[in-house]
Amino acid sequence: xxxxxxxxxxxxxxxxxxxxxxxxxxxxxxxxxxxxxxxxxxxxxxxxxxxxxxxxxxxxxxxxxxxxxxxxxxxxxxxxxxxxxxxxxxxxxxxxxxxxxxxxxxxxxxxxxxxxxxxxxxxxxxxxxxxxxxxxxxxxxxxxxxxxxxxxxxxxxxxxxxxxxxxxxxxxxxxxxxxxxxxxxxxxxxxxxxxxxxxxxxxxxxxxxxxxxxxxxxxxxxxxxxxxxxxxxxxxxxxxxxxxxxxxxxxxxxxxxxxxxxxxxxxxxxxxxxxxxxxxxxxxxxxxxxxxxxxxxxxxxxxxxxxxxxxxxxxxxxxxxxxxxxxxxxxxxxxxxxxxxxxxxxxxxxxxxxxxxxxxxxxxxxxxxxxxxxxxxxxxxxxxxxxxxxxxxxxxxxxxxxxxxxxxxxxxxxxxxxxxxxxxxxxxxxxxxxxxxxxxxxxxxxxxxxxxxxxxxxxxxxxxxxxxxxxxxxxxxxxxxxxxxxxxxxxxxxxxxxxxxxxxxxxxxxxxxxxxxxxxxxxxxxxxxxxxxxxxxxxxxxxxxxxxxxxxxxxxxxxxxxxxxxxxxxxxxxxxxxxxxxxxxxxxxxxxxxxxxxxxxxxxxxxxxxxxxxxxxxxxxxxxxxxxxxxxxxxxxxxxxxxxxxxxxxxxxxxxxxxxxxxxxxxxxxxxxxxxxxxxxxxxxxxxxxxxxxxxxxxxxxxxxxxxxxxxxxxxxxxxxxxxxxxxxxxxxxxxxxxxxxx
Length: 743
Fold this sequence. Notes:
Elements: H1 15-18, H2 20-30, H3 35-39, E1 45-47, E2 63-77, E3 84-91, E4 97-103, H4 107-112, E5 118-128, E6 131-135, E7 138-141, H5 148-151, H6 153-159, E8 164-166, H7 175-188, H8 198-203, H9 209-217, H10 222-251, H11 266-273, H12 280-293, E9 300-305, H13 311-324, E10 328-332, H14 336-350, E11 367-371, H15 377-389, E12 392-397, E13 411-417, H16 424-431, E14 439-444, H17 450-456, E15 461-465, E16 475-481, H18 486-501, E17 505-509, H19 545-554, E18 562-565, H20 571-582, E19 588-591, E20 604-609, H21 617-624, E21 634-640, H22 647-657, H23 661-671, H24 674-677, H25 680-683, H26 698-714, H27 722-731, H28 734-742
Parallel strand pairs: 4-6, 9-14, 9-15, 10-12, 10-13, 11-12, 13-14, 16-21, 17-19, 17-20, 18-19, 20-21
Antiparallel strand pairs: 1-8, 2-3, 2-5, 3-4, 5-6, 5-7
């Protein structure tokens, strides 16, 4: 490895420090180009190994690292499955021997682990047929030479210290290569000016940046590592919170047209004709939104509520307030099925209030238009003319609303339903159709843990509906272990038939559409994302709607009226199927996750989710919210072949054990990469937020927000803190800042 004695700064190219070949590998495989990139490539965990171990003293179940020499290799076919097993016998100077086993066809490993090579082997000791072994151990081979220990003292020291950093790595750049590169860089690294204000560091008891960067890579003790991680987590949390607080501060100064309530208007008429009373939560949130709409600055509010909590009625009341004030409101839905459902539901709720220009229309009525990609040319021209002229006070649609040629007379409110289904650009394109920034209401039925709301939606005001309307029934959920107890699956189908016999309806949900070589579910609507086929690890492909429906029709559901719904159906066919199901003309709907949000059929009481382990926690919670929407109790059966005790089975057991969406959201967060939550996937950029845990660092995030609010109030553009402003820009780049702003 080529090195230089020149001082390294964050901007020094790695090729000057570690040599061109290694630098190329770091750039190509890990996107690391400068010394700053590398020192911010933090270890993902630390192994605690102590001194390397005498093989003869190993105990079964112990996590160990041994310094040993390869004695022989043996390759043989596996008995239970296809592929080969590589057994590598290693030994040390004490006379002890150990078998390292590697599964699968790995000829390259056999060539690498040739007899005579010394290495460090790390793993958990197991015993098989009286012989101690390590299954698939991590290892690093030391330099060539007769004396293994003398051949690579540096590698031994790096790998066998007290706290060994293990880095996010690639096959071409393993963790020990990264560790060597980090050591080279740190030997000459000059950290940048500490961006944290001295007062913040003192108040929050933070160590300096240079010490934190050194200790996180080469910790001198557990306490030093804790302090280093805490300081670097703070930098990440503070950068995000400063960005959000700045955005909120600037947005407060944007101009918007005030849309105050009007006595005797459509909103009052709607409230008078509602067949039920609003919940206390709906009234309280409605008052918050009404106050926001009445100001001369754009509302930017997140409305979250459990499935069936009545968010649509709250949003409709906000839209009517804007129409009463002379403006238009647009609701953006993620699928044509949901847009059409909203259209039908709103027309039913408004009745004569939505029939402007028709016989029987109420005084002052407006019209409600649906704009989707599948509209015929004549219907599209008519709808767009109504929108452009301002006669359509409420406009519902999918991403077709974003297209050029959809013009509003006076767009005053944008409602985004299930916002996580839309990209930043899509939401922004609709907002840009107004002359002044419109008011924005973002809705989600996916419960959001408090720290996620604070970190991802920190520039939005947050309202929550926690109370379910009267008449909603409880939903019981059970796991059906199809592989272990096939009789349970038979009972599930009989249970479905019992519900149909009682006059109710049912859903059967599959993770895949089927009849597609690519396994892609695109119909152009973004209706559903299909899990990838995972047969490379031995599992069969996920069950598909088009394959399951005929099997059910011929088998356990023979004689029932079965419909099929998925994202690749033509829009008119999707609408026809959904209408038939809603009107009771179908007993069973076999569908993909296209029914996940918004679909409302109160007579549906049972849902059977096949291959339930292929769905996420929040997705399952959303899906089961389609049943129990009427007076009869709901039943959700989660069918799986996942083994008892597996993480997939534990996840399903958790879903079955509670209907508390917030508890499940925290579980979901635990199991996902938090970088995704922070916008890395939406922006398509590599996330710089590496250490912060939205689940475990609640207090730190809360403290960072308090400091950010205080600092921005005193210095809105961070003009007196240029190093901090630069640090924020590096951690939360412009693209991610836009993502955070647009929510």
